[in-house]
Input
Amino acid sequence: MARVVVMGAGAVGGYYGACLARGGHDVLLVARGENMKALRDRGVRVTGAMGDFDVSGVAADDRPSGEADLVLFCVKNYDLEAAARIVEPCGGVVLTLQNGVDAPYAVRAILGDRVLAGTTGIVADLAQPGYVQVVSAYAWIRFGEPEGGGVGDRVRQVQTWLSVDGIEPIAEPDVRIALWQKMSLMCGMAGLTTLHQRPMGEILGDPQLRRSFETLLAECEAVARAKGVALPEEFMLERIAYAERIDAGAMSSMSRDFARGRRIELETFNGAVVRMGAELGVPVPENEAVDEAIRAALPA
Output
């Protein structure tokens, strides 16, 4: 059994925390406001494609405390630095699960080599405080050492801790490939579902929007290869095939946040590709156009 601190127990963190607590781990859910109160008073309720279950009696607070074996870092990218400093005294291995490709290195600049890089595949929504609705029939975590180099002992240990019902932990010899596989997909999916407020089935079914989607992915591939990431040769074909398997009604979390008037992670996706493209001398005009259009639509 491990002591696990879930830093940011929203939809994704709440689900993984509930699975780990159900699997026998000592879990502390760190959340804010009404969500924290609901988690403390009633625990976590999970419904949807990964099954329906309730986990009561799980510890919840608005700040981490005590020593941890593992910290699941599930906050939004714009809260990274503050959350990293708050969790620093807990010790343990820190596994970042943020969108994009920058988070592991930003957190490592504060917490050092305690940090492992990860990415997760799950579609979930915090329907109300303490209540997670899971849309996807999968919940995987791909993770490893931020600079690659194979699967070592601590990665294997984290994989053992995460091997509970409801979570598929996948140890990666070079996690940078996994980060860019998701990053490229999300630049297309998050960017276009947010900009047009249309689901993925309509994006891929519209010839013009499909071309935009494929161009966004191709620009991401060019940036990743310029950074030295050893993407597979069939990267584009595999990513497009993956996109076509996504539920036709799926909207990105960024599009939902945008529609609700919440802060969005644009700088994590298309904005990051624009920044990296400029640094590397790689043209990314489609990402620039999407980034600029979404920014223009944001409230002043």
